[in-house]
Amino acid sequence: RYFWSSFTFMTLIYGLASSVMIFLGISGYAFKNLSGTMLVFSALLVFGNVVLIPTVLLTSMLRTDIIFLSSIVCNALKFTVGISLVYLGWGWVGASTGYLCSAFARLAITTLFSIHYLSFNLNISFSALRNVLIAGLASWLPNVITLIGNWLGVLAIFVTVGALETGYYYVSYAIANVVLMIATSTLSLMLPVLSGMRDGRKRALSQVMKISLALVLPVAVYVMAYPWLPLSLLGKEYVEASPTLSTLLLASLPLVIVLGVNSLTYAYGYYRLVLMLGLATNVPRLILYYLLTPIYGGLGVAVSFTVGAFVGLTAALVITRRLNFIINWGIIGKVVAIPAVLGIVFWVIKAPWFLALLMLPLSYVMYLRLKVITRGELREIIKALHLEPVVSKVYSKYGDIIDRVMQS
After folding, report:
1. Which of 62, 79, 229, 271 has a Cα at 20 to 30 A from 357?
2. How far apart are CA 171 and CA 86, in angstroms?
3. Could you give the CA distance from residue 251 to residue 215 in angstroms, rounded to a whole number?
4. What is the DSSP string of 281-335?
5. Is residue 292 within 8 Å of 301, Cβ to Cβ?
6. How many whole angstroms separate alpha carbon 292 and alpha carbon 282?
7. Which DSSP category does 1 fall into?
8. How far apart are CA 334 and CA 367, in angstroms?
């Protein structure tokens, strides 16, 4: 009843908005550098948000394994299709196509799994819809603010600087998102898990944050030290965006902590604090976009994005005091220091990129050897996120290697 009421309502709303945008685009309406064709692509992206309903159904049933896998598949699809088409000279059309493929692939995957739990009886209830809308208002405004903070920078570059600089920034942002996806895909699953726990929320979040940082920081440090490597795969001209990519990746640490605190705050029902955290992260970005983009282009947007992440971190630390949530900075320091020291060493000795790749396995081995991450913590996180089937398959193939590494 709740599903079909929400799905029908959202389909009508997004369908109406998309139809209006398509009509304006076909009619040749344009706003500054935003053409009618861009409005048509935007309309399709808007309609793809219907995916929220089947995703929420799977979330409510704690099928986090499906959400996790669909997130990985769709982000990889977005990256490969978007970047490949941009490389082939499709420009913004290629980038938009990447997002379209990701959105509709996610819609197909989540809907396919959702139908196992549903009948096709369109049971629509206005009281159920009313309850959903009231509950959704608590998250709607923070999500809008986050969306604006993330993407207004791209529009700002396009309007003030031009398509070429926008392409450089888009590629950098896409690569940074692939790196951050390692952490955000896990942290985004914590909200339903934390909300469903009666106790142990803070301990569970601490473990997930630590493991997320341990997964993402070695990769982030490597790409920061050698940003030209992924960019050069698209062409020599994209190497100019190296400072932009490195600057965006500086936000890895604060963003992981902000996302974790955000999930915990949601789980406790402190929606005003969620709103404050969203404002603290994204308002500075919006202000700096206006100030820095006309002068520094994509680098200015990257600086704005990263500064917003650190301001959000400051707000998150204030909120942790309200929640009585203690972050173990000693452990976080070790998680950061290990890849940072390795990255500095390889960068100072000017090691070739293929040799510097050793920092990745070295970082993970040192995490395990120094007991920064333990076997018990991994087991608890896997159980909380319902990833046992996936992990069992991996362990059945590589268990001997994993056991050897875990032994002290």
Report:
1. 79
2. 9
3. 15
4. HHHHHHHHHHHHHHHHTHHHHHHHHHHHHHHHHHHHHHHHHHHTPPP-HHHHHHH
5. yes
6. 15
7. -
8. 8
279 vs 91: CA distance, rounded Å: 32
In angstroms, the CA 263 to CA 331 distance is 21
Residue 137 burial by CB count (10 A; 0-12/13-18/19+): exposed, middle or buried? exposed
CA distance 104 to 93: 16
Report which residue type is found at 129.
Answer: L
Q: State the CB neighbour count (10 A cutoff) for residue 207.
A: 20
- pLDDT one digit per residue (tens) for the chain, 408 residues: 888 888 888 889 888 988 988 888 888 777 666 677 788 888 888 888 787 888 888 877 777 778 777 878 888 888 788 888 877 877 778 878 888 888 888 888 888 888 777 766 777 888 888 888 876 776 677 677 767 766 777 777 777 777 777 778 878 888 888 888 777 766 666 665 666 666 677 887 888 888 888 888 999 999 999 998 888 877 788 888 899 999 999 999 999 999 889 888 887 878 788 888 888 988 898 888 888 888 888 888 899 999 999 999 999 999 999 989 988 899 999 999 999 999 999 988 888 988 998 998 898 888 888 888 877 766 665 665 555 666 676 666 656 665 665 554
At 34 the three-state DSSP class reads strand
Residue with tokens 């549903």: 118
Residues in the chain: 408
- The answer to whether 113 touches 58, Cβ cutoff 8 Å, is yes
Give the whole-angstrom CA distance, residue 200 versus residue 17: 42
- Whole-number Å distance between alpha carbons of 329 and 186: 20
Whether pTM > 0.85 for this model: the answer is no
CA count, 13 A, side-chain hemisphere, 78: 24
CA distance 294 to 282: 19
DSSP state of 49: G
Tokens 């394994």 correspond to 65
> Using the 8-state DSSP alphabet, how is residue 31 labeled?
B
254 with 313: CB under 8 angstroms?
yes
Residues 6+ apart with CB under 8 A from 395: 402
| C-alpha closest to that of 48 among 125, 105, 133 | 105
Cα separation, 331 vs 373, whole angstroms: 9
Torsions phi, psi for 250 (to 5 deg)? -60, -20
